[in-house]
Amino acid sequence: MPVEGTRYFYRFRLFNRILHVMVIVSFLGLALTGMSLKFADAGWAQFLSMIIGGPMVARVWHRVFAIVTFCYFGLHIANIIASIVRKGGKRTFWGPDSMMPQPIDFVHFFQNVRHFLGLGPAPKFDKYTYWEKFDYFAVFWGVAIIGSTGLVLWFPTFFARLLPGIVINAAIIVHSDEALLAVCFIFLIHFFNTHLRPEKFPMDKVIFTGRVTEEELKTERPAEYERLVKSGGLERLRAKPPRHYLYTVARVGGFAAVAIGLCLVVLIIFSLIKG
Amino acid sequence: MRAIESWARRILLPAVMLATMTAAFALSKEADTCLACHSDKTVAPLVDLSRMDGSMHASLDCTTCHPGAGELPHKAQGLKPDCGSCHGAEQAVYAKSIHGRASASGDKSAASCVSCHGDGHAILAVKNPDSTVYHRNLPATCGQCHSAGKIPNPANANVASAFDMYADSIHGKAAMKSGLAGAANCQDCHGSHDIQPKTDPTSPAFRGNVPETCGKCHVDILRDYRGSSHALAFQQGNQKAPVCSDCHIPHSIRRIDESRAYNRLIDECGACHAREYATYRESFHGKVVYLGNLKVAKCADCHNAHMVLPSSDPRSPSSSARKMQTCQKCHKDANASFAQYETHADFKDARKTPLLHGIWLFMTLLLVSVFGIFGVHTLLWFAHSTRTGKWRREPRNKEGDDAR
Question: Among the four residues A150, A199, A238, B148, which has the most C-beta atoms within 10 Å?
């Protein structure tokens, strides 16, 4: 439900929100179909596999979600190229609007840890915080690594024509372990950092609504707010209050995703400890 | 009057009977003579002659089996039939069997001739489909004793409930339901008159005799098995080397294309081949089999089911010479490089597969460091936010609309 009597500003434009919905759907699908195979000796995985329709049905879905993943990865790369053309390489890969890690991020990291320990003030974050950039690169690196090894496993006889057979062995280890890392990272660290931490609990709906209130912008990203006020760019980000249905989408879709993810990660950790 | 009655009972009745019987003996069939008394309600045991219609013993005289009954009054001995007087060879064999020995030692419940063949009067030829020992009917006959609960305090539960398991097995269904005379029944694997426990080297079910016993029907499989390293190891005295019954559970034997049966089979291979088992279960093939799909490669698909050979043998499907062809059974476009894929690679073994070990080590290190750094970061954050009371409340509208 939008708050009345306050100004709204864009944080995520429609294009990136659609990409993130693609990430959510495909990631959950890949995790469920993949983990039911990775932990095949566990009862929960056998039950999950049975619900999906068996390993051969899971395989088809896994590849469908992989295609969705390649699509959003491609769209994102195209978006970066468009940004280079529009704004130039320097503003795409450096500065406060870029996802690129920069010296200030390391400074913020240490300042923030100090702040958690009660030894200093919170750092003044700009548009993208260091943990958001880490999340971003975790997905970027993850898609590249899991995606490429996944293709080797999808077309093993084709890749065996180009590479030695041992590459298939390597691909299995990398695909499986990197997927475990990605699933645990997203469902534990990303969920906490973005949604479950006390400031945002139970979830931050901005990825669905795309807009933040002036109050949120000022307190959570003071450097960005000051910068925008100074440069006069704030008005260009002015947005109408989010439509009501966006909150419904956020609540239903977001909660479902968080719930599925948390359940899966609990089962995975249970199996890892037991096994 | 009383005296007359007594006199009549003591002397006259036997005299009349004797006279009648003597006359009858001379004039008619012996059976009619016996039945003069034994079809009457007063003189036990009663004999129903109609039961002998079609019996193998129909043409015999009563005294053939009851020699003591030839005289009147009957002698005490020779009234009970002695099957061995005609079937001497069978009797001698039976006496040495586990049933015969148990019977001789006074076990009243041990199977005797009539336990399996039924009453001597109504006895039918083994080939007669109504016979209790006809191929199809034999299992149920053995099952009179060898079903759950029939033998009190059995020494071996598997022996005691053999029929229950057998009835549901592929052999049992084929023999009993479909009436296939070629399907193994009890006797085919255990013998009949000469039945012995499977610990006895003369039993067809003795471990060392099992391949020959199964091979009576499964001829080609026996030939394959004989050429396998399993058979060789067994001949050389390795008692752990598998015979048929180690992989195919004898009484409850099933088709192996049932998922549960196959997973058990793979576990059986793993009982000796532990390292290969562990690496197989880690592989895509092994995991898919766990999930109940049997279309992927299983032990036997690459190593043969019966003619199991080491990879060093060029005849083995997993040998370097034939590996690629074996992969091509499923992966049509597989080439030599594809066949280099290490099916049983152990990435924890640094010496055998240093490259894979290195990759695994790197991935593990990455996992540990990411969760080390961000785990601590998250915990600190959580503690800080909780301490400073930042549990969030979404902004509410002035009208008091619930913003959540």
Answer: A150
